[in-house]
Design goal:
Strand order of the largest sheet: 13-14-15-12-11-16-17
Number of helices: 17
Bound molecules: NADP nicotinamide-adenine-dinucleotide phosphate, magnesium ion
Structural class: alpha/beta
Shape: globular
Length: 508
């Protein structure tokens, strides 16, 4: 077994500029200034690989949110402000520059993400950081393409009258954005890119577990030339800063990514002024392997990666694995072998393939599900427990022989835990796949094109991957059916959710 030990590394293996950032006192960005929380209180930020404190961030609360919303409002409501008089082309160039600066600082950002979240530095460098840059580059192009329509109208009660009617797409206003800890920089990019491309102002609250790259991104936004007050960043707790932002009467929209449970709280909080709400929530995604899959070896590797990528801390993780009966045992054993080969260690170690979970709380949550699976009578094929005494590591885990009512099958674990189960026929597996309150993603593995299309069409999920998994692109919309969310991130679809349509009708 390769993953029964955890690599140790020397603590100083980071770039001097990463160290410089860590040595600085983190602050909130409000109205272009870096400030402490109004109360002066802060909270500790931990390295999940060893549980040690890596820094302090301001504990922003209602008062800080009020300041930040006021700053955003002031910019948005002033038609002569440079943000509002800027041409779409200028705005596009500014957003493009954010993408360039992310790439210029890619190594530092990857290290910060790794120290803060626990993910392997190499993964952050290859995926999180370039995807974040690409999102800004993609959205930069849209700044000049936010168009309305000219509409020929008939007006039955005004015979003979002539009108010139058209629509314009305007920014929604001040946007509150609340993001989770699993892809801290990327989630900030997904939220900020479209908001800026459409000319909104923003107050962003990163997750308490992972504020580092959001604060660093604030510096990058300033360097790119984003005017003061356009993007404000308030670090703090969800129940205080997050709740105040969601409820704020001067916020026109709240965009949230996180758990379904908190998503429902956001909807309630938003009811006061009926602000617009978009939600990217949890999932319990089915990954279906038919026995006619083209290449079993690649399918096994794909199914392993579907659950183990980012330590299973993906909202779209392929956590319910359904395998056609004839090949089920072979696939489960193959994934178990892959799981045992994964090298666990601190994210900063060069050869680490899986880091720790993000926090002690997440460790307790994931091991709690592992215990529940065991107690309910599921068979643990591999893994099933915490690894080591230091840091928040757990073994990549597979369960089988679980019944559909067990919590490990029904609830989002958000860790490297997959439950495998055989199936006999296509109608049965479509029904079982859809038997969930979630609807974020799904996977299908088959070489039969007609079967792939038929199954994809019947799955109630926002994304269906066929013969691949976890493929993301700035141009491809992402989001959920059912309790996995409202609205979409990325692609041109997201732009609809950051604009209001105004119809203008001119009597001629
Ligand atoms: P979470 O507890 O829902 O937290 C997400 C964010 O909401 C954090 O910034 C959190 O702040 C904040 N928050 C917590 N309570 C709040 C409240 N009462 N009012 C306003 N904001 C509040 O979720 P998590 O455990 O951190 O993240 C994992 C979840 O996110 C999973 O369920 C996963 O499926 C989902 N997710 C979905 C997507 C997607 O695109 N669909 C992407 C990534 C993650 P603090 O952390 O500071 O408390
Ligand atoms: Mg952290």
């Amino acid at each position: 077994m390769a993953n029964d030990t955890i690599t140790e590394i020397a603590e100083e293996e980071i770039l001097p500029r990463t160290q410089d950032f860590l040595d600085k006192q983190m602050k909130c960005l409000i109205d272009g200034k870096w400030v402490d929380s109004a109360s002066g209180a802060g909270f500790s930020v931990y390295n999940p690989a060893n549980g040690k404190i890596i820094g302090m961030a301001p504990s922003g609360d209602k008062e800080d949110i009020n300041f930040a919303v006021k700053a955003a409002r002031k910019v948005f409501d002033d038609p002569r402000h440079s943000w509002n008089t800027m041409t779409p082309s200028e705005r596009g160039k500014l957003i493009w520059k954010i993408g360039d600066l992310i790439l210029e600082n890619a190594d530092e950002l990857a290290e910060l993400e790794s120290i803060d979240n626990g993910k392997p530095k190499a993964v952050a460098r290859a995926a999180d950081v370039p995807l974040s840059a690409d999102l800004f580059h993609y959205m930069a192009g849209w700044a000049t393409k936010i168009e309305g329509n000219t509409i020929p109208i008939s007006v039955p009660y005004a015979p003979g009258a002539k009108f010139h009617a058209f629509t314009v797409r305007e920014p929604v206003g001040v946007i509150g954005q609340i993001i989770p800890w699993n892809f801290p920089l990327l989630m900030a990019a997904w939220k900020l890119g479209p908001a800026l491309a459409t000319g909104n102002c923003v107050v962003l609250k990163p997750a308490e577990q992972t504020p580092l790259t959001a604060v660093r991104l604030g510096e990058i936004l300033q360097e790119a030339g984003v005017p003061d007050g356009v993007v404000n960043i308030v670090t703090g707790m969800g129940e205080t800063a997050g709740a105040a932002l969601a409820a704020h009467d001067d916020v026109d929209k709240v965009a949230f990514t996180g758990s379904t449970e908190v998503g429902k709280m956001i909807v309630k909080a938003a009811g006061g002024n009926l602000k617009k709400v978009t939600l990217e929530l949890g999932g319990k995604s089915p990954n279906i392997i038919f026995k006619d899959t083209a290449n079993l070896e690649q399918t096994i590797a794909g199914a392993a990666s579907a659950i183990f990528f980012n330590h299973g801390q993906c909202c779209c993780a392929g956590s319910r694995l359904y395998v056609e009966k004839d090949i089920c045992e072979e696939v489960v054993n193959g994934i178990a072998d892959a799981a045992k080969q994964i090298k666990l260690g601190p994210g900063l170690a060069n050869d680490t393939e899986m880091g720790p979970l993000v926090s002690e709380e997440q460790l307790a949550r994931v091991t709690g599900y592992m215990d529940a699976g065991q107690e309910a009578g599921a068979t643990c094929v591999t893994g099933g427990s915490r690894l080591g005494e230091q840091g928040y590591f757990v073994s990549p885990t597979i369960y089988k022989d679980a019944s559909e009512d067990m919590s490990i099958v029904r609830e989002e674990i958000f860790g490297p835990v997959v439950v495998a189960s055989p199936f006999d026929d296509i109608e049965e597996i479509i029904k079982r796949s859809n038997d969930t309150t979630y609807g974020l993603a799904a996977g299908i593995w088959t070489k039969d094109i007609a079967k792939a299309h038929h199954t994809a069409a019947r799955l109630r999920a926002g994304t269906v991957w066929v013969n691949c998994y976890n493929i993301f692109d700035s141009a491809l919309p992402f989001g959920g059916y059912k309790q996995s969310g409202w609205g979409r991130e990325m692609g041109h679809e997201v732009l609809e959710l950051y604009t209001e349509t105004k119809a203008v009708c001119i009597g001629l």
